[in-house]
Please model this.
Amino acid sequence: MEPLLKVENLSVYFMSRRTLFSKQVVKAVDGVSLSIFQGETLGLVGESGCGKTTLGRATLLLVRPTAGKIYFRGVELTGLDDDNLRLFRREGQIVFQDPYSSLNPFMDVYHIVEEPLIIHGINDRRERVMETLEKVRLTPPEEIALKYPHQLSGGQRQRVALARALILKPRYIVADEPVSMIDASSRVEILELMKGLQKSEGISFLYITHDIATSRYFSDRLAVMYLGKIVELGPVPDVLWEPLHPYTKALVESVPEPDPRNRFIERPMLKGEPPNPARKPPGCSFHPRCPYAFDRCRGEEPTLRYVGRGRYVACHLY
Ligand code: SF4
Model:
C-alpha cells in the first residue's frame, strides 16, 4: 500500500546563539524517515525537546526542512508552487497543544471555525460550520457558535480547535499533545472523538505525545524519538510489550504502575537529562544514559534498521 505521507531523510536545523559573537547549529530533526498510511495513527513519543513538534510541523511545511523530502499522496511537497501548496494546506491540518492560546479570544466559535473556509474561498459556510460542530459533539451547535473561548471549558476549546482543523475535510492531521493541557475526563472524550473520526472519515493522524499511556490507546504504530532521531518504530503492542531500544525500555518502565500491589516493584528509571541538542555526544547519542553502552556505541552512530515483523531499531545491540 502507498503511504499517504512519506518522509525521507528529513532534517531541520536551527542556528542558535552560543556567545555574543558565535552561533551553533541545533539539529532539531536529523535525517528522519517514516511513513503514515491512510486511516492510520502513528504515535510519536519522546521526552520534551527531542524534536517531536518540529518534525510534526515540518511534515506540514509549517517549518521549512533544511534537507530531505516529504511526499503526500506521492507528490513531493518541498517542490510545490504556491497554488499547489495552498491545495495541500486543505489536506493537512494541525491541532495544537494549548487550547487556551491557540484560539483567538476576540472571535466567537462560529468565526473561529469558519475562518479556514474564508481563506480557501469555500461557500455554504454556515451549514459546514454547524455540521462540523456537531461532528465534534459541541451541541447544540447554534448555541455554542455564539460563545467566546473564555466561556468554554478546556475540553470544549480543544473540540473547537479540532472543528477548525476538520472544517476543510483534511486527510492528515498532526495532533500535537492535544490532550496534555485538559482535565482527565475530557482527555478520554477527545481521544475517543479522534479515534471515531479516524475510523469514520479515514483521517490519518501523527499523534505527538510524551504520554505512553495515551499513545497506546490511540496509535496503531509507534515511533520513539531521541535527540532528533527515530530510535525505534513498530506496531504499538510490540514496541510497548517487547521494547528493543534501551531508551524505549526506559520510557516504558517509567510509566506509573496503576496496580497498588505492584508499587514496590523496583523499576529501572531513565537516568539523567537528555544532552544539549547543540552538543550531541559522538556515536550513539543515548550512550551517556544507556546501561548497555559498549565501546562501539561511543564512536559509531547506529542507523535505523529493519529487524522483522514491521519493526525498526537504531541500536548496535541488534
Ligand atoms: Fe545503548 Fe549502544 Fe544501543 Fe546506543 S547503540 S542504545 S548506547 S547499546
User: Anything to note?
Assistant: The longest strand covers residues 23-36.
